[in-house]
Amino acid sequence: MPSLPTRQVAVPRITLLISLLTLTVILVASLAYEAHDAARSHRVTAERALRDYASVAAWEYVANVQDRLNASAGEVLSPVTSVRASSPYELLAPPDLLTAPAGDILECRAVSGDSARVDFRVDLRDGSVALGRTKADSDFVSWLRDTVVTHTRLRYRPEMRYASLADPTRAPGRVVFYAIRYAQHGAPLAAYGFTSCPRAVGDGVLRDAMSTHALLPASVTGGAANDSLLDVTVTDAAGRVWFRSASAGAGPTATAYSSDVSLDAAGVPLTVHASLRATAPERLLVGRPPASRLPILLGLLALTAALAAVALMQLRREHELARLRADFTSSVSHELRTPLAQILLFGETLELGRVRSDADRRLAVETIVHEARRLMHMVDNVLHFARTSEGRMQLDRTPTDLGPLMEGIVTTFAPLAQERGARVETEIREALTAAVDGGAVKQIVLNLLDNALKFGPRGQTVTVIVERGNERARIAVEDEGAGIPVVDRERIWSPYVRLRRERSTGQAGSGIGLAVVRELTELHGGRSYVEHSPSGGARFVVELPLAAGPSGATADDAASPDRRPREAPRELQTWAGRATRRVTRGLTGRAGRT
């Protein structure tokens, strides 16, 4: 009997230990699966990036070839064709004028199958053909006249620097480059040009494009030569090779990471095939294997044990967070329901044809657009809040004149203010230029304006002020409401926080508007605060760094480098597109006061 209590106590302990061990095994298995899934995801991403690198290299090669052909052909032809004739009946210059500037540009070597350079002029008024010092057979001259005249009428455009032609059947071994000389009023007078050969294009332009220009960004390749990373082959439709890089065929290639791009710059359609060599993934940044995840797994296990010790402390916080989430969900649902109901009402009215006049139809459409913009603004507010909370928000800061920016925002917001019986004024006390993201500043001011209108009296005047303060650009929004108690002036910037008087009045609000204002302001290296307004209401102030000098650097940037938004990796974006600046969307809807 004395052992019974021990057994009775031991059984629950064993059960507890088994349960803990089971949970530990499940946790370890889950972590192992996550590690495996992460490795697989990394591999898929790396393979996609390698294929993208091959595509970028092919497009970069094509662009470089086209630039070189433009420069070469333009250097020969522009002295004759760039100046327009004063009259359509002007006596034409002989084609010998092309010989001096031509030099050795696209020159054919003395190799079997290559043709000698022929300078020519085709008079588009009567179809006559004049040749330079080097003559050609009558069949080629006939083909040249017919092809150039037809191509000029159907394909050539005045903005083109040159055009190229080739016909392996009727003009074997020749590539024709020509440009049109025009009269003053745009009438084509004559085509001046010269012939080259595929070997000159392949050994000259195509080879130089491979050897003298990096096809992938140095941040990825580490400065490695093109031949050590890429195989490039250029072929025509018949499969004839115009150019093959020195490394092609010299060893195994990673054919899975390749790309084909069309090139139409030598008279015939060509195909550029670029593929990464077998050793390229190991030399490229994306090809490096991921580091061991064992320390992460061990850290997560230790973290799990620590979390068990503080679970009780989290229960109280969880209760408070649950209440805040419930308030946030209720507020957002209420704010979404009103514009959705308006959109649905007027949309059904239009769908059923119940409008009585064009004015009613315009009113319905304007209401739908207005409410849709309100929804967009609310969604953008939530997205800004999520991105800043997770550290994913990035700014595109440029020197911006704050006066016109504020006036544009107020003009956009004016209809909403009139709807609420209020008026918004701007007071630009000094012309200031700040290093800011225009879209983010617009979101900041819209949130403050909506906050002032939502919680201020009808008929009030809201003032947007731009001035200099503390060697910074200061944007202030003053209202005529009840103001903010001193004890709450810092708390209201926290997410989901609403004053008790606002909850008691039932005024809608998501609880994140002012949190978004503070996060966006701090990302700029500035600060935000609220104080008493001379009009008796609240004065919300945002201070932003001034633009300092031509470089656009600011004193706050130098003093607080950790507050600067991190630049996104350039790699493919910089080399493949060199563009895609962020476009600031117009926002005219509401934002909750928070």
Characterization of the model:
The chain is extended, with a radius of gyration of 36 Å. α9 (311-351) runs antiparallel to α10, α11 packs parallel to α12 (438-455) and α12 runs antiparallel to α14 (513-523). Helices cover 47% and strands 18% of the residues. It has helices at residues 3-81, 99-102, 138-154, 198-211, 218-221, 226-229, 280-283, 294-309, 311-351, 358-390, 402-419, 438-455, 500-505, 513-523, 555-559, 571-577; strands at residues 119-123, 129-131, 163-167, 171-182, 188-196, 230-236, 241-244, 253-263, 270-277, 398-401, 423-428, 433-436, 461-469, 472-478, 527-532, 538-544. With 594 residues, the protein is an alpha+beta fold. Strands 2-1-5-4-3 form a 5-stranded antiparallel beta sheet, sandwiched between helices. The chain has a 5-stranded mixed beta sheet with strand order 11-13-14-16-15. A 4-stranded antiparallel beta sheet has the order 7-6-9-8. The model is unreliable at 1-11 and 550-594 (pLDDT under 50).
